[in-house]
Write a structure and sequence with these properties.
Number of helices: 11
Order of helices and strands: EHEHEHEHEHEHEHHHEEEEEEHH
Number of strands: 13
Strand content: 15-25%
Shape: globular
Distance between the termini: 50 Å
Bound molecules: nicotinamide-adenine-dinucleotide
Radius of gyration: 19 Å
Strand order of the largest sheet: 8-9-10-7-11-12-13
C-alpha cells in the first residue's frame, strides 16, 4: 500500500476542527501540521503548529493543503501552496469575488496543480443517490429544482461571515453558494439567474441575511434557491422534480425519499454511516494520487462565485 498522503490544514476554527477530525479517520492520509493566526488554536490540535502558512509549507513540506480559513484568506494561502506545487482543497466560497477565484484557478492550471473546491454537499450520500437516479434517467427529464438552507444565527453580526470585506457578501455567497453548486451538479450549467436580497437583522451592515434566487439551466430546467440566517426551524431540503418522478433530499430527517411515476409509495434507500466531509476528503486523496479525476474542481468554485456575483448584480 502507498504511504499516507502528508496533509496540512490551514485554519483550525469551526470547519477546520471538523476536517481535522475526519482526516484522523482516513488511513490513506497523515496530518503533518497546521497553521492558524490564533496560536492557541493551532497548538490545541497537538500537531506541529505555525502561525504563518508559508512557514508551515516550507518547514513541514506537506503533499497537500486543506484551507479552512475565512474566504479572504483562501486566495493567498492557495497561491502560496500552488507556487510550491502543493495540491489544494479550499473551503467554499472559493474566494470573495470572481477575480480572486480566477487567479487561483489560473495559477493551478498553469502549474498543473490539483485545486478542489470543498463543496461537501456533493458528497452527501442522499445527493449522490439522487444524482444517480437522474443519470440513470429514472426521474425522467428534470423540470424543476428547489433548495432551502436556513437557520437562525443570533450572533451573526459579531462574526466574519457577515463582513463583506472578509466573506465577499452575505448569506448568498456564504450559504447559497452550496445551492448554486448543487443546481449545477444536478442540472448542468446555469444560463440565467435572478435574485432578491433582504436584510432583516438591524445589526447587519451592507450584507443580506435573507435571499431567494431563480435559476435557469441550459436545458431549460428551473430552480428556486432560498436561504436565511433569520429563520428558526427552517427546513433544509433539496427537491428534484422530473417528468418521471420526484426525489427529496431531506437534511432534517437525514434521508433521501423518491417516488417514480407508477410507484405505490415513496422509497427510502438505506444509507451508509460515512458523512459528507469524510467522503469529500477521501476523494481528494484519491484525486491527488491520480486514482480518479477531481469531482469538484477550482473551475466549479469559480463558476459558483460568478453566478452569485451575477445574482448580486455586480
Ligand atoms: N462546507 C461547509 O459546510 C462549511 C461549514 C462552515 C464553514 N465553511 C467555510 O469554511 C471556512 C472557515 O469557516 P469557519 O466557520 O471554520 O470559520 P472560523 O472563524 O470558525 O475559523 C476560521 C479559522 O481560521 C483562522 N484564520 C484566519 N485567518 C487565517 C490565516 N490567514 N491563516 C491561518 N488561519 C487563519 C481563524 O483564526 C480561525 O481559527 C469559510 O470559508 C466558511 O465559508 C464551510
Amino acid at each position: 500500500m502507498a504511504e499516507p498522503l502528508r496533509v496540512a490544514v490551514v485554519g483550525c476554527g469551526g470547519i477546520g476542527k471538523t476536517h481535522l477530525d475526519r482526516w484522523r479517520k482516513i488511513e490513506t492520509a497523515q496530518l503533518v501540521g497546521v497553521s492558524d493566526v490564533d496560536e492557541e488554536r493551532a497548538r490545541a490540535t497537538g500537531l506541529p503548529a505555525f502561525t504563518e502558512h508559508e512557514r508551515l509549507l516550507d518547514e513541514v513540506r506537506p503533499e497537500a493543503v486543506d484551507i479552512c480559513t475565512p474566504p479572504a484568506f483562501h486566495a493567498p494561502v492557495a497561491l502560496a501552496a500552488i507556487e510550491r506545487g502543493i495540491p489544494v482543497i479550499s473551503e467554499k466560497p472559493l474566494a470573495r469575488n470572481p477575480d480572486e477565484a480566477r487567479g487561483m484557478v489560473e495559477a493551478a492550471r498553469s502549474r498543473g496543480v490539483p485545486l478542489m473546491t470543498a463543496f461537501c454537499h456533493r458528497f452527501h450520500e442522499p445527493n449522490m443517490l439522487a444524482a444517480q437516479l437522474i443519470r440513470e434517467g429514472r426521474l425522467g427529464r428534470i423540470v424543476q429544482f428547489r433548495n432551502r438552507f436556513g437557520a437562525r444565527l443570533v450572533r451573526i453580526a459579531d462574526i466574519w461571515s457577515s463582513k463583506a470585506e472578509i466573506a465577499g457578501g452575505g448569506v448568498l455567497i456564504d450559504t447559497s453558494i452550496h445551492s448554486v453548486d448543487l443546481f449545477r451538479f444536478f442540472l448542468g450549467e446555469v444560463r440565467q439567474v435572478l435574485a432578491l436580497c433582504q436584510t432583516f437583522n438591524p445589526n447587519l451592515k451592507g450584507v443580506e441575511d435573507t435571499a431567494m434566487m431563480l435559476l435557469e439551466a441550459e436545458s431549460g430546467a428551473q430552480g428556486v434557491i432560498e436561504s436565511s440566517w433569520n429563520t428558526p426551524w427552517s427546513r433544509n431540503t433539496v427537491e428534484l422534480y422530473g417528468e418521471g418522478g420526484a426525489a427529496i433530499v431531506d437534511y432534517d430527517a437525514g434521508e433521501l425519499r423518491y417516488r417514480l411515476e407508477g410507484d405505490a409509495d415513496w422509497q427510502r434507500p438505506e444509507l451508509g454511516k460515512m458523512d459528507r466531509f469524510e467522503r469529500e476528503l477521501r476523494h481528494f486523496v484519491r484525486a491527488v494520487r491520480g486514482e480518479e479525476p477531481l469531482q469538484v474542481t477550482g473551475e466549479d468554485g469559480l463558476r459558483a462565485v460568478e453566478i452569485v456575483y451575477q445574482a448580486y448584480g455586480r
